[in-house]
């Protein structure tokens, strides 16, 4: 198999690299360790690809088929590998080859070169499982599997789930502990329930005992109560005795007052308080009635006099009314007369106004001549002035007579004045002519007014009968005043008569009342035997004082008895005496713990029991709480499940123990088999190594031996150059080649050798690799400093 | 004499851990145990039994849950409502924490628990005496019936958890009862518990039965399960086995031959397959070295077709045809087999038990086979065939 091309991308450097590799020895010089690691990873293909992002390999297998290997990373970072084979231009996917290179590093690890007793120094010491052929490797793997069973001691089921013995043991212990815990909890629950039951019983007992002691204490209290009751009864008894004494004294006083009252007149019932009150009332009424009668008489005489006076005054008023003027005068007439008088006055005023207008017109008419004269005079002056102005100067006799310039002005002024006077006179004349026509109308109006006025005056005179309006009205008022006075006297007369009648009635009533009072008083006095009301009332007062004394004595007696009688009090005293005797008997019947000194003992016991009860109650609550917790914890444990699992775990343990024993036995047998076969296999391997060594070193005496020691294959160089370092390295190369060659398949895969240490590669080793490259493609990866000078046939690739 | 009717049962082992069964079906089997107890209570009520006798191992005290204990109490209450008296003796499964759990479930007034280590008597009905004792480690070696002194007339019923001498298949011996002691005991009927199968141990007029467990607790019991209806009247004691319905359970032996082991095993299991059946298959015969692990694989393959399936491997690996003439054979399995056989034949104290060697042989062959399989796989991938010198 040949690797033609390798392309890959270094993750650390984010760099894509492509290298073409040739058959024979390709020396790849890489300076960057990260790139070197990625290069090896991409070549090995089965190692860790942490340093490679992707890689492509172009291979040619032994049959000449071209195979492309591609390594990619999915979106989730997982590595995807695929292989395709070119056949006739098409790419057919094929299984990814399990191995397409043979790779190892130099200097070889595991070469613990320690001196052996025979003076030899071992090349390498490798585990047998790594160096032996397939058959022995199977043995080693089987032994390892048995070792795994023995050490891990897992059951078959557990082996699948990767559970280890320790974990199972812990699990079983935990389950058994859980079961034990559940049983402990159950036992605790039973104990708690028992304890709770006992506590409840004990509390009940203490309660009864406390109740018993309390009954003792209550008996003491009851005894005290009875004693207090007896004291109260005795006090009452004493009060009754005192009350009897007081009653006797009061009764003596009562009897004395009664005797005094009995000796007084009126004791036979005459001095009835109602009668006495009536007598007192009648006596007072009689006095009042007499006074009223006198008063009525006086008022009645005054009323009679008042009536007489009113009658006289009424007659006078009637006479005046009869003798008054104009009995036919009326208010209506007076009103008409007043209206007519007002009309007359209005018309007189209108007539006066017309007369004054006429007089004014007359005064204007008197100026007519003045107006005419002013018109004429003005016209003349104006004409003359105009002529004087207009006439030539020679008209005038002399120059002196001629009119100077100033004279013209005067003439002009005069002409103007004359013209103005003429105009005024004309206007005034026109106005006076208008006034003359108005005066004529006024004259007609005055005449009409004068006629109406005369008619109205005639009407008024006939209406008033020749009197004036004032006289007519005065007469009318006087008559009205007299009539009003007449009516007032009549009303007063009625009132006086009514008052007189009422007084008459009152006098009659007073008189009758007095008579009846006298009759009633006389009747009472007659019955009582007294001659007068005053003597009756005096006797009554005396009797009343004696009766009060009697009543007072009676009240004191009743107060002393308190609503009872002497017999009742005496009966009460007897009952109280009996009650006292009974209470004293009841009191004496009650046990008095104080009497024999047990009260303290009982009180002490009560306190102790109460304290114990409190403590037990607390314990009861605590136990109840704990029981709840226990129930809760028990509820959280599925006992059957735990016990089942624990039992199953125990069975698993038994199975595991049996399995372990069988595995140990099997291992023993397998080891024996391996021990029997390993030396022969090692010998065959050593022969193979020697052949390779001779080939790559071209030294006929070079050989390697292999011995089994402590489960490892130890290789020793033989021959004359066995101590030569170059030879030793070549021998190591041969061992590596032989180990891998034996496990290799038919196709000869390329050899990849890493030499990443700075130690220079020995020329002999390079030559050996060059010899190896005659049989297969060899790719040497080394740092630039470690590389010796290359041969012209070497394909050198430098990755900077 | 009035007919006295008794229901006799024992060894229900309520809340037994049932480790013979898969974890998946264990819960269902547990519920079936409680159902069996309920069935017995129902039957006692239906058949108007006077007394129910439970001759020990009513429950597994170490694993019994509170819910199951409540169910038992409820069963006893139902008996009480039907005026049925129950007498119980403890078994060794109930000895945890001094019978605490059993005392708790037997606290109903119609239930009498014989907790004394000497015989004691209770008279649930006029003229009927039930004698019982608790079997413990202290009295388990003494002949219990020898100490029983039956007094008075009437019917005398004995109740105990022990071993009747000579009972076939009963290995343990606790409080042994001999036929002679039974015949001289004066008991009309001795109700025994401890043995999980129904057995009549009567001697003459003395009637004595093991009722057996009414349910299968594992695969050590076979066949139908029973309780006993015992009638006592003037003319003697009669016992009527009463079948207790339950899940079908079988233990079968499957004989395989080396060349057709897989075929035979799979065919037999296919014929037996039932989703209601609890099956334990004992595979016997010979298998080839290549069939190591066949039994486990068969169990895995058929597990879903049974309510419960256990396949026990009692096969031996057959000797393969020798490809080499001596111990230095290049064929690993052959060489390993020879070594194992030689170890079996090895005399002396160092010799290991045959079953261990047999198991080791299977393990070793299995391990080599797995490696071989891996090697084959690897070489197939490489397309390069097998390595030289390893024709396997």
Question: Mind explaining what this structure looks like?
Answer:
With 800 residues, chain A is α/β, with parallel strands linked by helices. In chain A, 68% of the residues lie in helices and 11% in strands. Chain A has helices at residues 33-44, 128-131, 134-152, 156-161, 165-262, 273-323, 331-365, 368-390, 405-464, 469-528, 533-561, 566-589, 598-636, 639-697, 725-743, 763-772; strands at 2-10, 15-20, 25-30, 52-60, 66-73, 79-87, 90-94, 102-105, 124-127, 703-709, 712-718, 751-755, 778-782, 795-799. In chain A, the strands form three sheets. Chain A has a six-stranded antiparallel sheet with strand order 2-1-4-5-6-7. In chain A, strands 8-12-13-3-14 form a five-stranded parallel sheet, sandwiched between helices. A three-stranded antiparallel sheet of chain A has the order 9-11-10. In chain A, helix 5 (165-262) runs antiparallel to helix 14 (639-697) and helix 7 runs antiparallel to helix 10. Mean pLDDT of chain A is 83; it is low at 153-163. Chain B has 392 residues and is α/β, with parallel strands linked by helices. Chain B is 29% helix and 25% strand. Chain B has eight helices and 16 strands. Chain B has helices at residues 23-46, 66-81, 100-105, 179-184, 261-272, 294-302, 332-344, 354-382, and strands at 4-9, 51-55, 85-89, 111-113, 120-125, 128-132, 155-161, 189-193, 199-200, 207-210, 225-233, 236-244, 249-256, 274-287, 306-313, 316-317. In chain B, the strands form three sheets. In chain B, strands 4-3-2-1-11-12 form a six-stranded mixed sheet. In chain B, strands 5-6-7-8-10-9 form a six-stranded mixed sheet, with no helix packed on it. In chain B, strands 13, 14, 15 and 16 form a four-stranded parallel sheet that branches. The N and C termini of chain B lie far apart (84 Å). Mean pLDDT of chain B is 84; it is low at 371-392. At the A-B interface, helix 3, helix 5 and helix 14 of A face helix 1, helix 3, helix 7 and helix 8 of B.
